[in-house]
Write a structure and sequence with these properties.
The structure holds two protein chains of two kinds. Chain A is an alpha/beta fold. Helices cover 47% and strands 17% of the residues of chain A. The chains are: A alpha/beta, B mainly alpha. The interface between A and B is medium-sized, with 28 and 25 residues.
């Protein structure tokens, strides 16, 4: 039995490395982003990608879809986009006999990988339609509920610069995203590589390395990784440290944070930690796995207060301080 | 539910963790011991330096060391209670060997029941890792560097012990004056006590007891200045009680001397008595006793007559002496020379006793004088300190003085003086003091100057000669009260947004002025 699990772990690691290597054939750098996207996929989460235009947000998502043998859809969010445009709608259909009946026409959300490009440009009503589907993994139109095909993985992007005419996602909806990943501007060396790859006659193309079943098996494997109570306690104390007005609150939290991370955030730490443990050939979650998940899992889950906003405090700074100051053990 | 992992794996994990725990404990004890030693040595060093610098008496060193050892023992017992801490040992091993919480997780999983292949695999891996660990290399026994500091402190302590010390370098600023005064007074009192003791008489036992009590209280700093002065006065009174008797004795001796002035044999004796030189008088009396057999009959008869005459006189305090002289005269009358010599010897003894009493009283008087001087000094010191205190309080009490609550004494005297100049006889009822030697000094005149101001009433307005028409009154009031400003143009001092923004608690107080300035800046100015 243990040998079987050991093989399972080895297979998991190998497949992950293959996927990553294949993505890197197209995407230059961005290791953390690719890891984050894949960890979210394997932990049954969704990702919000944030970055300035033109740094490859959409390219990363498209490449991930290419590498995985999954159905991929893309929705460009605009202010006039309606919920029906995403989830689909009942349309009148005429049969060969001339009878008319309503048929449900599936929207682009019925896919495995959905790229919600510039999600903050759609109205809250439309955003809600997507975010509800993300959480429930089903769509209800009329009286009928339609299950979304597993795996259902949403990669949403948003541009932090152009705030004019946008509808920022409310905190409750941000909480639905497993990770918020920030794509930074590439380094000069990476820029050279990007130029070399993308300005030739033939651009590199990623090949498929994982199919749907393999992904689902990897998801199950990740969830089997056990976590000891002391490590889980550490994850909980990290979460509580983001809550102002509690005994565990960090001083920076008390000063700059209005609301801390939810229990869903703690789930993110643990699930992400499990995947990270497997990637490091461990059969247990370590505190460092939890710590590694802290920034992408919590940066969109803590709500700054007036003082924090006024002083333009980066949530990442608060989280780094919490990581530094919260001890692994309470002894 | 059975514990996780095979028996062998559990055994390996447990034994490894126990070995690590043992070494962690040893290092912990060494670390805590180094802290304790440093603290104790630091304390001793502080005491040593403090003893050299300040007038303090630190507790003995063995008390400090003993107490600290006891406390350290209690602390160790408290900190090590509850047996082994394998979870802590697992954490330490994980950290030192960079095992990514493998042993900590395994130790926790060992206590779990149930059936999980994943946990079994984890325990198996952890046991393999533990087997390869070397607890000695993982947690080496380290002597804390604090022991070097402790050694330095110890050396410093030893060096300080060899430095000769004549007393503290500094004294407490506030306590130095009173301490010095108390020490000086105690020294003076000791000298006085020695003087009284030197009189070697039983009469002074009470005085000595009181002086000892006063001295003890003074050294224990349990005596106020008033109590000290009172004790000194009482002791002084007791010491001076004998002066009255001595004066009477001296007067009697002078009278006695007058009786012997014309005597050929007793002339020098009389002179010695007049000079109050009782020792010489005693010596002369003894010489007379020895030479008694050499006297002629006439001289003997004359001496007998003079002695007889002196013995018949009434001189209080000299009864014993006169009795001896009477016996001597009687013996001479009976021509019993030997008895007469014995009687004169007795008289000489009486004179010596009186001389001793005289010297004792002189000693008492000297002690009394010293007490007088000491009392005066104490009074001066007390008044000096009160003056200093008054000056210190006066610095902070200017406001009170300005408000008229305090009146300087000079001002009072000046006021009294001016009143005297105006009216030397003084008004009836003034207090006078007879102890001022006839010069009467009057206190300040008590005055009761009340400035009464007349209540001025405004003159009533002259009533109109004729009553106004009610219609005019109403119309006039209506004209006066009509609004001249359109209500639409009336602006609230604060807009709603401004007020609500300032009322929101989420705006920190230090940003409120900024918010207010913002709203003031965007306020429309056209209608102003």
């Amino acid at each position: 039995m243990t040998t079987e699990i050991a093989n399972q772990i080895e297979q998991f690691t190998d497949q992950f490395k293959q996927v990553k290597a294949e993505i890197h054939r197209v995407i230059v750098g961005n290791d953390e982003i690719i890891d984050g996207v894949l960890i979210s996929l394997l932990a049954k989460g969704h990702v919000l990608l944030e970055g300035i235009p033109g740094i490859g947000k959409t390219k990363i998502v498209a490449t991930v879809a290419d590498v995985l043998q999954l159905v991929f859809s893309r929705i460009q969010f605009t202010p006039d986009l309606m919920p029906g445009d995403i989830v689909g709608s009942d349309v009148v259909h005429e049969s060969d006999t001339g009878e008319k009946h309503l048929d449900f026409q599936k929207g682009p959300i019925f896919t495995n990988i959905l790229l919600a490009d510039e999600i903050n440009r759609a109205t809250p009503k439309t955003q809600s339609a997507l975010l509800e589907a993300m959480q429930e993994r089903s769509v209800t139109v009329g009286n009928e509920t339609h299950r979304l095909p597993p795996p259902f993985f949403v990669l949403a992007t948003q541009n932090p610069l152009e705030m004019e005419g946008t509808y920022p996602l409310p905190e409750a909806q941000l909480d639905r995203f497993f990770y918020k990943l920030r794509i930074m501007y590439p380094q000069p060396d990476d820029m050279h590589e990007i130029m070399d790859r993308t300005t030739r006659r033939e651009e590199p193309v990623a090949t498929t390395v994982l199919n749907q079943d393999q992904i689902l098996l990897m998801r199950d494997t990740a969830r089997d990784v056990p976590i000891a109570r002391p490590v889980q306690d550490y994850a909980i104390r990290l979460t509580l440290a983001t809550h102002p007005g509690t005994p565990h609150a960090h001083p920076m939290t008390e000063k700059y944070v209005r609301f801390g991370a939810s229990p869903r955030g703690t789930q993110t730490l643990v699930l992400g930690g499990k995947v990270n443990a497997l990637l490091n050939d461990r059969v247990h979650v370590a505190c460092e796995d939890v710590r590694a998940m802290m920034l992408p899992a919590f940066r969109h889950r803590i709500l700054m207060n007036f003082e924090g906003e006024a002083e333009r405090i980066d949530p990442d700074d608060i989280l780094r301080a919490i990581i530094k100051d919260v001890p692994e053990s309470t002894e | 539910m059975a514990p996780r992992g095979s028996r062998k794996e559990r055994s390996i994990l447990t034994s490894t963790l126990q070995r690590v725990d043992r070494r962690v404990r040893i290092n912990g004890v060494l670390d805590q011991m180094s802290i304790a030693v440093c603290l104790v040595l630091g304390l001793l060093l502080t005491f040593q330096i403090g003893r050299m610098v300040l007038p303090v008496t630190p507790p003995p060193g063995f008390w400090v060391v003993g107490g600290s050892s006891l406390l350290f023992g209690v602390f160790l017992a408290w900190s090590e209670r509850g047996g082994s801490r394998l979870a802590r040992a697992a954490s330490v091993a994980d950290t030192r060997a960079d095992l990514h919480d493998e042993l900590k997780t395994a130790y926790w999983f060992m206590g779990l029941g149930g059936d999980s292949a994943w946990i079994d695999l984890q325990l198996h891996r952890a046991a393999e890792t533990a087997r390869g660990l070397d607890p000695r290399g993982l947690v080496p026994t380290t002597v804390p560097r604090r022991f070097v500091t402790a050694l330095g402190l110890f050396v410093a302590l030893q060096v300080l012990a060899f430095i000769p010390m004549e007393g503290p370098l500094l004294t407490f600023a506030s306590a130095s004056d009173s301490t010095a005064i108390a020490a000086s007074q105690a020294q003076q009192l000791e000298e006085i006590r020695d003087l009284v003791e030197a009189t070697e008489t039983d009469d002074d036992a009470e005085v000595l007891a009181q002086l000892e009590e006063t001295l003890r209280e003074l050294e224990a700093d349990q005596l106020s200045m008033e109590e000290l002065l009172r004790d000194l006065r009482e002791a002084q009174n007791m010491l001076e009680e004998g002066n009255l008797e001595m004066n009477a004795l001296e007067e009697a001796l002078a009278d006695l001397a007058q009786g012997f002035e014309d005597s050929e044999e007793l002339g020098d004796f009389a002179e010695a008595l007049e000079d109050e030189n009782l020792d010489l008088a005693s010596e002369l009396m003894r010489e007379l006793s020895e030479n008694l057999s050499n006297l002629t009959d006439e001289e003997t008869a004359e001496l007998m007559a003079q002695l007889q005459e002196a013995a018949m006189s009434d001189l209080p305090g000299l009864e014993d002496l006169l009795e001896s002289l009477q016996e001597a005269a009687a013996a001479l009358a009976n021509q019993e020379t030997q008895d007469a010599q014995e009687a004169l010897e007795e008289a000489a003894d009486r004179l010596e006793e009186m001389s001793d009493r005289q010297e004792a009283q002189e000693g008492r008087n000297e002690a009394s004088e010293q007490m007088e001087s000491m009392g005066e000094q104490a009074t001066e010191q007390q008044s000096g300190m009160e003056q200093l205190l008054g000056m210190q309080q006066g610095e902070g009490g200017d406001e009170a003085a300005e408000s008229g609550m305090a009146m300087p004494s000079d001002e009072v005297k000046q006021s009294a003086g001016s009143t005297e100049a105006q009216d030397p006889s003084g008004p009836p009822g003034h207090a006078t003091s007879e102890s001022m030697g006839g010069e009467q000094e009057f206190g300040a005149v008590t005055t009761l100057e009340v400035q009464l101001s007349m209540e001025v009433l405004d003159e009533p307005e002259p009533r109109p000669e004729s009553e106004p028409d009610p219609d005019d009154v109403f119309k006039g009031a209506s004209r006066e009260e009509s609004s001249t400003l359109q209500y639409r143009d009336v602006r609230s001092p604060d807009s709603y947004a401004e007020g609500s923004a300032l009322a929101v608690d989420q705006i920190p107080w230090r940003y409120r002025s900024l918010v207010k300035k913002y709203f003031l800046a965007i306020r429309p100015r056209g209608n102003q």
